[in-house]
Specification:
By secondary structure, this protein is of the alpha+beta class. It contains 4 helices and 6 strands.
Length: 197
């Protein structure tokens, strides 16, 4: 009589002969269908930025700013006024906003600026404003109205929409600032522009 271990080995061998060999093309990575072993996502697909990203000043924005300043410098007040949207808001080194709601008001505002201005540079600031830094010049037709201001620098923050100036804020502190400078971010219902820091 054969030992019991030999019978057991024979049974296992016969059972193995009838088993189908696994198809080598059906192999899968363990957990690929179940998600087992895959760590949970830790980052949101739309992360909230921790700081505002400053986009470059566009060619269109620069052309509006330059066009406005060139028109004013050449004494073309009506042309300068047409760069402003209606309504728009302006603050010429003041604590209050002035609303320009008609073409006549826009012209009066531009006529009241005694100097011409030559654009030196632009840079993006917060809340989509563009800061333009200008060298002051005499304005054609003003007959020396700029006076001692000639040669000085001023900065104006512009909010430009649809190729027109929506908000215009003088901010002389930004004229010499080496880095990005905060600019006012007024709402139409705001009674006074916030001051830059």
């Amino acid at each position: 009589m054969k030992p019991s271990w030999a019978i057991l080995a024979l049974v296992l061998a016969l059972a193995g002969c009838g088993a189908a060999e696994p198809d080598r093309f059906s192999l899968v990575t363990p957990g690929a269908h179940t998600g087992e072993g895959i760590p949970a996502a830790t980052a949101s697909p739309n992360p909230t930025p921790t700081a505002e990203v400053m986009k470059p000043v566009t060619r269109a924005e620069r052309m509006v700013i330059k066009g406005w300043s060139e028109s004013l410098r050449h004494g073309e007040v009506e042309a300068a006024a047409r760069f402003f949207s209606l309504p728009s808001q302006v603050s010429n080194d003041s604590a209050n906003w002035v609303a320009l709601t008609t073409a006549a008001e826009a012209e009066a505002f531009n006529q009241g600026l005694p100097c011409g201005a030559k654009l030196i540079r632009t840079r993006r600031s917060v809340d989509d404003f563009v800061v333009g830094v200008f060298r002051l010049t005499e304005r054609k037709g003003q007959g020396g109205g700029c006076g001692t201001g000639v040669g000085g620098t001023v900065a104006v923050a512009f909010l430009i929409r649809d190729e027109h100036i929506r908000q215009w804020v003088r901010n002389d502190a930004a004229a010499t600032a080496p880095a990005e400078t905060a600019t006012p971010t007024p709402e139409p219902t705001t009674s006074a522009p916030p001051q830059s820091g």
